[in-house]
Structure formats: C-alpha cells, structure tokens
C-alpha cells in the first residue's frame, strides 16, 4: 500500500478588538497550528541482499594474453602484424635473427651424426669379435671389450641427441607464432630493432577479446563476503544484463600490508570493452530473508543515531531503529519497527517528534494497475 499525503493547513484566528477611551485599538493576536504534509509507506517483510561495491580493471583471462619477448639479445628480422590486426593460431608474429642459436643447432646436429657413426663402427666391431670368438680365434675379453665400446657409443649418441633437441628448441624460439586467435593489442618494436631478453623490453602483445574478465580490488574486510560463483554486474551507464559477471576465483592468502585483494570475475557474455578499461563492480554478497524492510529514503540519521518517523494517528513519532543490510532501494530494520507500520518517506527532514501531519491513504485499484502487475497478482 502506498500512502500519499496531501497538504493542507489549519489555523484558528482569534481577534479581539476593543475600543479604548482614548480612541485607540488593542493589538491583534493570532495563533496558528500548521499540519506538515508528508508521504508514507508501510514497512514490509521481504528479502534483501548485500552488495560489495568495488572497482576493477578489464583484463584478458589466463591463457588469453601473449606477451612476446626475445629469447636472448637479438635483432628483429620480421614482424608482419600491426596494432589492431587480427591473427589466427599459428600465424607468424615475430622472427628474431639470432645467429648463435642457428650455429649451435648445426653444431649439435653434427655431433649427433658423429655419434651415430661411432655406434655403427662399434656395432660392426662387436659382430666381428663375436664371430672370431665363435671360431675360437678371439678371446672372450675381446668380445667383452666390444660390448663395452658399443654401450658407450650408444650412450654418447643419446646424449648428443638430447643436446640437439635442446638446441633446436632454443632455435625454434627465434620464431614466435600465435597460440590462439586474437588481436594485436600493442606493438613496441619494428624490424631491424635490437631487443633484450627481458620482460621490460617486450616486442608484441596479443590478446583474445572473447576471453576477458575483471580483476576487482576487494577490501580485506569484505573478502569473506565474496564467494566463488556469486553473481555480479558492472555499475554505471551500462544496463546490468550487459555487464553480468560471475566470481571465478579469490586469493587463498592476503599479502601483508595490503588493504585490498584481487578477485577475478568472468563475463557471462561477451562485452565490447577493451582490455585495461577501469570499471565499477557490484558483487552480490549475503542475503537476509523474511526481514523488516523500509524504503531507504525513510531513514533519518543524526550523529550516531538512526531513526524513522512512524505515523501514529495524525502525529509523526520518532522511532530509533537498528539497521542491517542496505541496497539501492531498501534498508533492513533489525529492531525498533514492525512490518505494517507506516514510516514517513518524504517530508520528515527537520520534523520534530510528535509533530502534526497531514496524511491521506489511497489504494490503487486492480483496474488501475498495469497489465503485467495484474498478471502477477493473479498468479
């Protein structure tokens, strides 16, 4: 029920005029009682959910961000993509000119070839020694020596192959290809530039715009209220459905001396926001059900006291209350008020306790309700 207040003022005018012997008149006396117009609504029982308000940054999700750096000090031989270009998985991003890696790979390949030749010779020597031993020409020691030589040659071959594999892996790092479909977000260098093998000297950054998330800074005191799987949304100019989020992780430990911790939130659907965009986030926290709720505008705060004005007859009675959760529209009243009591929502500013008020309650009939409200009521 919504109570609508209409304003009127009542006053009583008492006027006495007496003629004096000198021909003068007595002063006029006026007493006026003003009835203050107010608007009121009944406190109701309902549910309310707390919201953690915080800020964050739109960032690529894990695995959706590739930062290309040189494997060692090198010159850029090729970098075909520009900022904003779309790349597919496997496309060439950067090719470094690193002569030392190429030379080392060739040297390791030569070592493998030499080791393979030694193994073949050792295997042939072993076969001859066994044949001579079987004919009674050679001694058993010669066979044992041939077996040992073959084992050593095979071990050397395995070692050479491992070295070649490591060298080829390093040589492959001279050519960097995209590991996912994405967009070149930043390019720091051009072909011919000399670069260092350090994170402080990146060459290219590729991100996947379809896999973005928000990393929000949540105050330490609110971390326990944020649960993995909780829903959230971007606050501001975007509609809530356009920026729907879900908490996917929160830190297992807090770094000493920090006032906030990072909480990761994934977008429920794709959103057209570039990485690095600062956003405001509202994360749904705990919920209280079957509690007394009043409109947020009914709350009056003075110093450390929180109160509401309750309509009692034609008077406004100030009522101290204890509040709980708060959202954008309502405040939970934990004590001091019962459901159904009329609380003043407008006109209570500066209102003294026990002030006379003007209040007229009207109910919107079912025929005046919108069609969607009628359907809801019928259900």
What does this structure look like?
The chain is an alpha+beta fold and 379 residues long. It has four domains: 3-47 and 289-378, conserved putative lor/sdh protein from methanococcus maripaludis s2 fold; 51-61 and 208-287, Elongation Factor Tu (Ef-tu), domain 3, CATH 2.40.30.170; 65-98 and 174-207, RNA polymerase II/Efflux pump adaptor protein, barrel-sandwich hybrid domain (OB fold (Dihydrolipoamide Acetyltransferase, E2P), Beta Barrel); 99-172, Orthogonal Bundle (Helix Hairpins), CATH 1.10.287. Helices cover 20% and strands 39% of the residues. It has three helices and 27 strands. The chain has helices spanning 99-134, 140-172, 371-378; strands spanning 3-4, 10-12, 31-33, 36-37, 39-42, 44-60, 65-68, 74-78, 86-87, 92-97, 175-177, 182-187, 194-195, 204-207, 212-219, 231-235, 244-249, 260-267, 278-295, 300-302, 305-312, 315-320, 322-326, 330-335, 342-346, 355-358, 360-361. A six-stranded antiparallel barrel has the order 6-15-18-17-16-19. Strands 4-26-22-21-20 form a five-stranded mixed beta sheet, with no helix packed on it. Helix 1 runs antiparallel to helix 2. Residues 1-32 and 362-379 have low confidence and may be disordered.
List the defining traits of the structure above:
379 residues, alpha+beta, conserved putative lor/sdh protein from methanococcus maripaludis s2 fold, Elongation Factor Tu (Ef-tu), domain 3, OB fold (Dihydrolipoamide Acetyltransferase, E2P), 6-stranded antiparallel barrel, 5-stranded mixed sheet, 39% strand, disordered C terminus
